[in-house]
Design brief:
The chain is mostly beta strands. Helices cover about 0% and strands about 55% of the residues. The chain has strands at about 1-5, 10, 15-25, 30-40, 45-50, 55-60, 65-70, 75-80, 90-95, 105, 110-115. The strands form two sheets. Strands 2, 4, 5, 6, 9, 10 and 11 form a seven-stranded mixed beta sheet that branches. Strand 4 and strand 5 form a beta hairpin. It starts with a strand and ends with a strand.
Amino acid sequence: VQLQASGGGLVQAGGSLRLSCAASGRIFSTYRMGWYRQAPGKQRELVADITSDGRTNYAYSVKGRFTISRDNSKNTVFLQMNSLKPEDTAVYYCRGTSYSGDSVIWGQGTQVTVSS
């Protein structure tokens, strides 16, 4: 599986963006998919993830504002980001983890910048 993230950009505070992560490979549907972010000078952190059967998990800082979803027919995972704040500014990465956990794949990052 290879991952290709897109959808980042510059937005004003309060605005919205939708990130997409397209996967190649036929076993995408079995992977747990996640979005992570890394701000300058900070460690990479989990934003949200979704299991193969659609269970979701969110970082406290984005609950109620961000929504992760997946379309297994299109091998794509999405991150809908609403009510964006300047502190959401970061490079966002998608990650896939196999069911067994022995395979972890990262996509390239996409920059999200929220201006105040």
